[in-house]
Amino acid sequence: MIELRNVHKSFGPKDVLRGVDLSVGKGRSMVIIGGSGTGKSVTLKCILGLVTPDQGSITVDGAPVASVRSAKARETFLARFGMLFQGGALFDSLPVWQNVAFRLLRGQLKRPKAEARDIAIEKLRRVGLGAETADLFPAELSGGMQKRVGLARAIAAEPEIIFFDEPTTGLDPIMAGVINELIREIVVEMGATAVTITHDMTSVRAIADDVAMLHAGKIRWTGPVAEMDAASDPYLTQFITGSAEGPIETLR
Amino acid sequence: MATLLHPLALIGRNTLALLAAIGRVAMFLGATISHMVRPPFYLKELWQAILNVGYFSLPVVGLTAIFTGGALALQIYSGGSRFNAEAVVPQIVAIGMVRELGPVLVGLMIAARVTSSVAAEIATMKVTEQIDALVTLSTHPMKYLTVPRVLAALITVPALVAVGDVIGVMGGFLVATERLGFNPAAYLQNTWNFLETLDIVSSLVKGAAFGFIAALMGCYYGMNSGRGAQGVGRATKLSVVAAAVLILAANFLLTQAFFSV
Ligand SMILES: Nc1ncnc2c1ncn2[C@@H]1O[C@H](COP(=O)(O)OP(=O)(O)OP(=O)(O)O)[C@@H](O)[C@H]1O
Ligand SMILES: [Mg+2]
Questions:
Q1: What value does the mean pLDDT take over residues A217-239?
Q2: In chain A, pLDDT over 70 holds for what percent of residues?
Q3: φ, ψ for residue A217 (rounded to 5)?
Q4: CB distance B101 to B248 below 8 Å
Q5: Measured between alpha carbons, how far is residue B87 from residues A51, A132, B167, B195 in Å?
Q6: Which of A112, A172, B50, B229 is 20 to 30 Å from B200 by CA-CA measure?
Q7: Considering the domain boundaries, does residue B239 fall inside one?
């Protein structure tokens, strides 16, 4: 269970988050939508402690994230999470399989190299990449392949809570379908809690239990995906239909 | 405009900024040392850094030292001949190389070669969110990136300085024996007899200090890089400038500490 209460964050003069309230239930799949630059990625980074909010509280299973300070506690805390970064953020000095198995090669979850490699190859297969990619370097992959390696890395240690920042951006429609299904599977079969950021309404419908829309630094609308289409919020409606006409300014 | 009209305010502001920067570097230094002594240790990364910092710097160190040693011999010979002191070439080359030029030139070469690449690499990792990714994978960036590089420099730069000293003296030897008519055996004998333990110890201590500074500055500016390609460029430039200035300043202080009477 992840709870954000009145979270604020500014970068210099720019107020990005201005009081975000959001709860993600255990084992649920939450999708965050919202215009480009509204702070969706920043919100995920706040939960992980990569960005410190200026104000407000964030708790995971009731424990405030800000209180996780010692190195040991942070490692235990972060071991519960997996994160796919918007840009992939693969380590370009390591081959693909070592990227995927990064967590399995060191620290608390360390295991024998051969076993870690087998797991890496299995995870790569799940995101539609063959074993031959395992020994390539990230720079040798296409953008969409890098994204999928990032995805494989996020799920490699089978974390309880997984964040996907635009998992299908840059993928062809078929591969996007495969990834949507994979995320759904992870939530349903492994019982993981997922928070996904996406701009793709097909993905929203395929992945989400719940949807939240971020606009102007606040959660504008949140609710079950089934209620999304019937909702009367003009901002949400404009976003879902992708219309240029409506309350959301197109110049930003 | 206001800053032009208020020179005192300008001086005050710059002084504060400088103090703040010194404070940040000091905190970074403290964090580096505290992570250096606490597990986990990443030995594979350390070994990689030792190769990068030490082994692959050998060619540039060798070339720099041999030319400098040679030039030094020529200068001392021509300068010394003005008061009939040409014979001191072996002694002065040895002192000049071992005490000053060896460590300083190696330090500056490491600043050019290692500081810049460390800063650019870490800064790129920062702007492409690889540092954030490390954190989410429960790996502390200071332990995984900074500590191996700083330790590697601390270990290998003194060795590089030793190599530079020897090659520099050999550069002087070659020029002196081939061009200036010195007797090879006597040249080496003079060099060896003249050098004291303190000369060599100071050379190696300087090497360790300069290596530490060079790697630390690369890591510090890389970790604190701004966003985008411009951020990386700026971090790289600042890291090399800071490393070079600090190395020269540290050289003065160490020379003073070792040799002032
Ligand atoms: N480290 C940072 N320093 C300064 N500004 C930042 C930083 N991180 C994010 N921002 C700013 O915060 C705002 C929100 O960024 P964020 O990446 O969260 O947007 P987003 O909603 O994920 O957009 P997109 O859909 O385009 O990915 C942007 O205006 C961005 O410039
Ligand atoms: Mg984003």
A1: 93
A2: 99
A3: 80, 5
A4: no
A5: 66, 68, 21, 16
A6: B50
A7: yes
Examine residue B60 and state whether it is found in any structural domain, yes or no. yes
Q: How far apart are CA A148 and CA B241, in angstroms?
A: 40
**B5 lies in some domain:** no
The whole-number average pLDDT for the span A210-237 is: 93
Residue type at position A1: M
Residue B78, SS3 per DSSP? helix
* Ligand 1 site, CB within 6 A: A 11, 14, 16, 34, 36-42, 86
More confident: B79 or A70: B79
pTM exceeding the 0.90 threshold for the entire prediction: yes
| pLDDT of A252 strictly over 80 | no
Please state the atom number of ligand 1 nearest to the C-alpha of residue A86.
Answer: 27
| B40 cis-preceded (ω within 30 degrees of 0) | yes
Handedness of CA A82, A85, A91, A94 (dihedral sign): positive
Q: Decide if A78 and B129 are in contact by the 8 Å CB cutoff.
A: no
If you average pLDDT over residues B175-203, what whole number do you get?
Answer: 95
* Distance from Cα B179 to the centre of ligand 1, integer Å: 66
How many residues are present in chain B?
261
What is the tens place of the pLDDT at every residue in B213-257? 999 999 999 999 999 999 999 999 999 999 999 999 999 999 999
Provide the residue range defining the domain that includes B45: 41-259
How many CA atoms are closer than 13 Å to the CA of B186, on its beta-carbon side?
Answer: 8
- The domain ranges of chain A are 1-80+161-166+194-252
Interface confidence, given as ipTM, is 0.92
What would the pLDDT profile of B24-36 be if each residue is shown by its tens digit? 999 999 999 999 9
Task: Assess whether pLDDT exceeds 60 at residue B131.
Answer: yes
Pick the CATH number of A1-80+161-166+194-252 from 3.90.1530.10, 3.40.50.300, 3.40.720.10, 1.10.10.10: 3.40.50.300
HSE of A141, CA atoms in CB hemisphere, 13 A: 25
Among B125, B128, B132, the residue with its CB nearest the CB of A50 is B132
- Copy the structure tokens of residue B222: 């890389």
Q: How far is CA A203 from CA A33, A153, B236, in A?
A: 11, 20, 41
Select from B108, B120, B121 the least CA-distant residue to B57.
B108
CA pair distance A170, A191, nearest whole angstrom: 27
Q: Is B32 within the bounds of a domain? A: no
Number of independent structural domains in chain B: 1
Please report the number of interchain residue pairs, chain A to chain B, with beta-carbon separation below 8 angstroms. 49
- Residue A249: the pLDDT is 79
- Locate all alpha helices (DSSP H) within B137-227, ordered by sequence: 141, 147-178, 184-194, 197-223
Tell me the chain A residues in contact with residue B42 when contact means C-beta distances shorter than 8 Å. 106
The CB-side HSE value for B42 (13 A sphere, CA atoms) comes to 24
